[in-house]
């Protein structure tokens, strides 16, 4: 009963709120308020319905106006569509007429567009653009304009293409001197005089320059070619009107770029690593020994020849010391004298042939060390191939080239060492032969006197 009372009170509050009635005191007042609220709501609904019916004519008028506007727009759309189709037919007819009237002229302008684009690309990579900057911009704009629209090029634009081509051909046969900004190898930018040789090379202060791609700027090559090429660059800068020798790159820098990448002699030697250094050290030692032996044997041979012309034995040469044996033992028999002379010759032979064996050993060991370095380098190359695969031929070529350097060094040392050993060995044998010959003569003379 209590819950029902609360529910009725809540409903009464809901309907009584629009009326702003006072809170009911009892159930009769609550019932009366509910009646009053329902009556007021009914009146509001009737008023709204009356207003809607009163505006029905106005809404109908708005609907009729909207329908009329739709019909007008549909008619306008049909007219515009018809006009569009007409314009399309007229445009196609005009394009056909334009194509027929242009004839081969259209093909000519197509070729002009292609030539302008190609020429702009060529001028961007030309040394002439350093002296005459901004030449390629106008041609690039012309090629882009002719490609993106159907507008024809003017006479002035056609002449600009012809002028750019003629200028490039003319400047390709000139040696020009001018000043421009150069980026040095250390990154510093300096304005200095440069010499341009046609469209092939550009030098400054005896250094070759390269064109920075996509710009009209130049920079010194970080790695210059060998001295004989830079010497020709200096001669070109210092030359007057007389012809001078110059290392010209007809490819415009491609061959020069490959040339500077080639390792020089020191870098080749460095590729031999430890084995290469050992081979070079042995070669230097062998060369020093050969030089000492060559000087010694030359002086010794000269003294022996002078001793042959003298009857008095001197102690400053091997032959004199051998000849002194007969004066030391004048009364011995022939057999004893022969033994004494043989002993004296054997005593002189080590002095004559000293260190020749070491030169021969170097001539044999050097190519073996070179082979060792080659095998080691090939092992490293195959290990790199195992790790990185064979996708990069430069990796294999570089490793094989490095491996073969030691073989070259070994042969470079072995060949002269072999020749030096043969020469020095022949000289030493000639001196020993003279000693033996003179000893035989002394024995024959003593034997004759004995008889």
UniProtKB/TrEMBL annotation:
Keyword Nuclease recorded: no
Leader peptide range in chain numbering: 1-21
Major site of localization recorded for this protein: membrane
Pfam families listed in its UniProt record: MotA_ExbB
Transmembrane residue ranges: 275-300, 357-379, 399-422
Coiled-coil region: 56-97
One GO location term (cellular component): plasma membrane
Gene Ontology biological process terms, A to Z: protein import
Residues covered by the MotA/TolQ/ExbB proton channel domain: 328-436
Keyword Glycosyltransferase: no
Intracellular or extracellular location(s): Cell membrane; Membrane
InterPro entries tied to this protein: ExbB/TolQ_transport, MotA/TolQ/ExbB-rel, MotA_ExbB_proton_chnl
Membrane topology: Multi-pass membrane protein
Record keywords, A-Z: Cell membrane, Coiled coil, Membrane, Protein transport, Signal, Transmembrane, Transmembrane helix, Transport
Similarity remark: Belongs to the exbB/tolQ family.
Record-given protein name: Energy transducer TonB
């Amino acid at each position: 009963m209590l819950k029902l009372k609360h529910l009725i009170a809540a409903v009464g509050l809901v309907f009584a709120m629009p009326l702003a009635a006072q809170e009911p005191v009892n159930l009769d007042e609550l019932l009366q308020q509910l009646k009053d609220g329902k009556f007021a709501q009914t009146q509001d609904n009737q008023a709204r319905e009356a207003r809607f019916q009163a505006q029905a004519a106005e809404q109908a008028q708005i609907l009729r106006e909207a329908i009329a506007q739709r019909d007008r727009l549909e008619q306008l759309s049909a007219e515009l569509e018809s006009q569009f189709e007409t314009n399309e037919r007229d445009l196609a007819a005009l394009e056909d007429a334009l194509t027929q009237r242009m004839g081969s002229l259209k093909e000519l302008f197509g070729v002009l567009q292609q030539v302008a684009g190609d020429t702009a690309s060529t001028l961007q990579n030309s040394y002439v653009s350093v002296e005459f900057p901004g030449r390629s911009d106008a041609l690039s704009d012309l090629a882009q304009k002719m490609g993106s629209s159907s507008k024809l090029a003017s006479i002035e634009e056609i002449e600009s293409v012809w002028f750019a081509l003629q200028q490039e051909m003319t400047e390709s046969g000139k040696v020009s001197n001018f000043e421009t900004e150069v980026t040095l190898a250390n990154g510093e930018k300096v304005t200095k005089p440069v010499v341009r040789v046609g469209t092939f090379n550009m030098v400054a202060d005896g250094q070759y320059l390269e064109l920075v791609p996509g710009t009209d700027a130049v920079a010194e090559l970080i790695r210059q070619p060998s001295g004989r090429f830079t010497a020709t660059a200096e001669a070109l800068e210092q030359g007057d009107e007389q012809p001078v020798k110059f290392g010209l790159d007809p490819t415009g820098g491609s061959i020069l770029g490959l040339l500077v990448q080639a390792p020089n002699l020191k870098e080749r030697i460095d590729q031999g690593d430890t084995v290469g250094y050992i081979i070079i050290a042995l070669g230097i030692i062998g060369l020093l020994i050969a030089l000492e032996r060559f000087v010694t044997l030359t002086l010794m041979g000269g003294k022996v020849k002078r001793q042959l012309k003298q009857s008095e034995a001197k102690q400053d040469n091997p032959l004199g010391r051998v000849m002194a044996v007969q004066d030391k033992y004048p009364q011995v028999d022939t057999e004893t004298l022969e033994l004494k002379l043989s002993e004296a010759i054997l005593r002189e032979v080590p002095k004559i042939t000293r260190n020749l064996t070491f030169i021969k050993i170097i001539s044999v060991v050097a190519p073996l060390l070179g082979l060792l370095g080659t095998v080691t380098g090939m092992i490293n190359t195959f290990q790199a191939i195992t790790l990185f695969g064979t996708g990069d031929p430069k990796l294999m070529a570089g490793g094989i080239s490095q491996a073969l350097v030691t073989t070259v060094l070994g042969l470079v040392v072995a060949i002269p060492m072999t020749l030096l050993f043969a020469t020095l060995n022949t000289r030493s044998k000639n001196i020993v032969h003279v000693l033996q010959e003179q000893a035989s003569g002394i024995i024959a003379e003593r034997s004759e006197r004995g008889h």
